[in-house]
Amino acid sequence: MKSRRPALDLRLAPLALGTWAGAWLVLSAPRTIALAAFLMASLLAALSHARRRGRHRDSERSVLAVFIAVGLGLGILTSGVHVATRGTIIAEAAKRGTDNLVVSIEAIARTDPVAITGPEWAGDRRRFIADATRVCLKGQCHASREVVTILGPTSGISAGSRITASGRLRAARPGEESAALLSASKLAESSPPRGLGALTARIRTDFRAVADELSPQGAGLVPGISIGDRSRLPASLDDAMKAASLTHLTAVSGAHVAVILATVLLLTAALPRWAGIAAGAATLIGMFLLVGPMPSIKRATVMGLVVLLARLRGRAPTGLPALSVAVIAVVSIWPHSARSYGFALSVTATAGLMLLTPIMTRVLARFFSQQLARALAVPLAAQLACTPIIALMISEVQTYGIFANLIATPAFIPALLTAMPAALLAPVFPRAASVLAHVSSGLTWWLARVAQFFAELPVARYGLPEGIGGVAIAIGGCLVVLGTVIAADRWLSTRPRKRQASRRRMRAALAIAMAAVICGVVTYRWASGGVREWDMWQCDVGQGSAFLIRAGPTSALLVDAGSPGAGVERCLSQAGISNLPIVFLSHPHSDHVGGLHDVLVGVDVGQIIIGPSRHPSANTEQTSQLAASADIDITDAVREGRYLTGSSGQATWQIWGPTRAVADSWDHDAGANDLSLVVYAESGGIRALILGDLELEGQAELYRRLSAVCSVPRCPEIDVLVMAHHGSGRQLPELAHQLAAPVVVISVGADNDYGHPTASAIELYEASGGTIFRTDRDGALTFHATPDGVAVTRRGGS
């Protein structure tokens, strides 16, 4: 008689999904829609119950409808109460958008400050989230419970600090937990963290000091895998981790909690049950306090406590009910988790492991050993579960994620188990902590090498269409894989005699496939000289400028479009770009905006951002007409006196100039060059600054703002600098020495009538430590990050 497989316990799943959906509706949709959804679900539950006639199937449907309706009601109620009790003083003040309104707040920092870049990076400006307790504006003070994101100089501030801040507000995006963003001109710690907050702050601070002794990868990864501190992770390694689908290793998640909890329970196995469970509960709460309220930690902590409670009562813990309870609890306590990608990834990955790992292990075990089958099944199940959400987030999938996780996992567990004790010992035994941290650093070296290896393979990131189309493709692909696995499971289970032969054939096929892959990788790396796909691309458009910043596999940001017919469309085709989320037009001269028509014909454009200059007016009008005909929005980069910042896929960008004051005071006709947008961008670990056609006055204005906060060269740190005005002789020595960029690009046409680039400009930037690359001789240039810096590839001069 065949043993029946245990049935899945899905009783609480509808309640959890309903709660999640209810909270999401309140936070993301108009309140009338949320109310209508609840009423419809309630009506459905009532009708299903009324039509029940005692049949089991009807009874199950009735219970399902009731659970969904109850979940929706719970989610709507808890999130509604949460929103209503927070208050709206800060949010309403931010929505009014009055720049001259200075707001003062008292708050408690919820997270550690994180470094930011851009014009607000001035000195030690960082970003953190705080819970406001008091707000003062227009001479009146009010109690508040709103959440605020604060930008400012945060020396000495950590999670749990009580702070006072004053500055100007910006409205937050609809549905975000933060009521507003406060750009603080004054920010101070009124009192340090207290109680357990003081202890966790001391651990994090002292552990950072220990980690500073490590290599760059160790200083970034050791605190990352143990306490979720990614502040020191090198940008190039961070990008490689994303490409290899290994970022979950540094965003402390359920895997970290499971490993630590299992270790604690193993060490306390000889103690009474209650003592082991108490130790486990203390561990979960301690990790939550130490790491901070990240979505994955919230889910893992609640789920771990549910499992421990089941063990205390002598019951075997079951995964899906525990996960359902965790979802209900987290969404009810922290309703904004319903809109968090991190929470969604944590839940779906956990559900995927529970639902898909057993069947995938059974299928793979017919061809491999049980241990190898399970090792393959775990990352495959997690990848399948998370792929649709990743596609929605960044419109791409990581091609080699399954294999990267398979190879990295053996080093991850011991690295975590040495890094966590190092963190706990750092305040009391720093030498012992240093020894453990160095051991962990040696193990994380393997994680870094795995990430960099897979990130450098061809098609490490496979692009998908943005929006619902890409999500549909991802879901369809996952369903095909899942259907194949289920069909294989059923087919092989009915043919036991063929199992051994199938296993031999599969092993032979696997050996051949692995040999083919290795040969292909070696050939690719040899033929390409180890150069991976580009992160940034300086197009060769003659006497003009067009610069690409990669945002995704087939998308990029474009800074300027060159002259008409100068070849920007050819550059986009060679780069494999079909979508430009943003086109920046620094100023309206034809060698920077004339190629816009060619761009719009060849690719999809999401938005155009322009500088303040409108001279010559004919070019400005033509730009407006082209954008209108293509139904593309145009945004003024210095509107309302604020710098724009943003991100798209893997690219982040900032506008560093000109300021609104400069734009209002300068002669737009005579000073169009000096009103060029100054664009700072990061992608793939490379930091680039594009200066447009700034003349001496514009460069001097930028230098004044930089020198006000920088007392040493290379502040800010720039990897690639596009020299101002095609290498004209009007270059400011002070700015060149301040930036001291190692790679300096001149976008210039061969045999031009302007004498660009001038010998003086080249000598100036070479004296500042830069290596000069110029498109008239080198052709288009591509840039990508390596552990040793920026690698530049010349593509032949025009």
Automatic annotation (TrEMBL):
Cross-referenced Pfam families: Competence (PF03772), Lactamase_B (PF00753)
Residue stretches making up the Metallo-beta-lactamase domain: 540-628
UniProt entry tagged with the keyword GTP-binding: no
The answer to whether the entry has keyword Mitochondrion is: no
**What Gene Ontology cellular component terms go with this record?**
plasma membrane
Q: Which InterPro entries match?
A: ComA-like_MBL, ComEC_N, Competence_DNA_uptake, Metallo-B-lactamas, RibonucZ/Hydroxyglut_hydro
Protein name per Swiss-Prot or TrEMBL: Competence protein ComEC
List the source organism.
Bowdeniella nasicola
